[in-house]
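Q: I'm building a small set of examples for a reading group on sequence design. Run inverse folding on the following structure and report the sequence directly after it, with nothing in between.
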C-alpha cells in the first residue's frame, strides 16, 4: 500500500476534532486482509503512531488485525498538523513537491511547507 499524505492529514484532523470524552472510545482498526477505505485510514493512523505523531494504545490480534485505541495528537503531531492544516498551504506543498520532483516525506515536509508559505506570501504581496 502506498502512503497517502492526504489520508494522513485527514487522520490528524479527525483525531484533533475528537472530544476528550470521545477520544478514549474511538479506535482505528486495520484488518489483516482488507483494502477498504477505513482499513487504509487505520493503516495511516498506525504509521502516524509509529512516527510519534499520534499517541494511543496500539495492539494486534492473532487473527483479526491491528488497533489504535484512544488516539490523541502528540506535540509533534499538533505541530505537523499546524503546518499543513490550511488547504491553500497543503495544496501548494503538493504542487511544489510535484514541480521539484520530490516526494513528500516526513523529513522533507518541513522544507516544503516553508517553500509553500514563502510562495503564497510572495503571491499576496
Amino acid at each position: 500500500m502506498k502512503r497517502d499524505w492526504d489520508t494522513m492529514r485527514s487522520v490528524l484532523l479527525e483525531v484533533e476534532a475528537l472530544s476528550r470524552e470521545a477520544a478514549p472510545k474511538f479506535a482505528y482498526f486495520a484488518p489483516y486482509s482488507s483494502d477498504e477505505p477505513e482499513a487504509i485510514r487505520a493503516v495511516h493512523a498506525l504509521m502516524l503512531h509509529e512516527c510519534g505523531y499520534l499517541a494511543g494504545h496500539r495492539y494486534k490480534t492473532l487473527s483479526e488485525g491491528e488497533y489504535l485505541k484512544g488516539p490523541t495528537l502528540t506535540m509533534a503531531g499538533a505541530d505537523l498538523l499546524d503546518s499543513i492544516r490550511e488547504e491553500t498551504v497543503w495544496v501548494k506543498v503538493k504542487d511544489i513537491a510535484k514541480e521539484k520532483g520530490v516526494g513528500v516525506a516526513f523529513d522533507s515536509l518541513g522544507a516544503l511547507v516553508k517553500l509553500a508559505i514563502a510562495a503564497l506570501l510572495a503571491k499576496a504581496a
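The chain has five helices and three strands.
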